[in-house]
Model the fold of this input.
Amino acid sequence: MNIDYKHFQERLEQEKKLVEKELEKVGRINPDNPSDWEATPPVDRDVSQADENTVADAVEGYEDNVAIVRTLESRYNDIKSGLDKIKHGVYGNCQVCKKEIETDRLEANPSARTCKEHMDQA
Done:
């Protein structure tokens, strides 16, 4: 089996752009650590009506954004890791057994770190 590095690099680059767009909707790059994203509070359209409910909604919205940023940032880091592996010629190898990851698994998840046999160990 021979992995088409160019194909998967294009897929990962495309997915990276999509995840970045989603991250920008709920967060920003941490100015103190450019490799980290942090959640931002949702934009409140009517701050003049600041009452307990509005404040509670804003806190809840921020907590939702924190959870979304965590999930997206994890995905983003997996994508960057996949691109880095392509750059260094080690893309598509299982991090557990070092065998080549199945092509259909990489098609389903281009940033997969393990083969099907070890997918629960990633």
Remarks:
- The radius of gyration is 19 Å.
- Strands lie at 27-29, 37-39.
- Residues 52-87 form the longest helix (36 residues).
- The first strand starts at residue 27 and ends at 29.
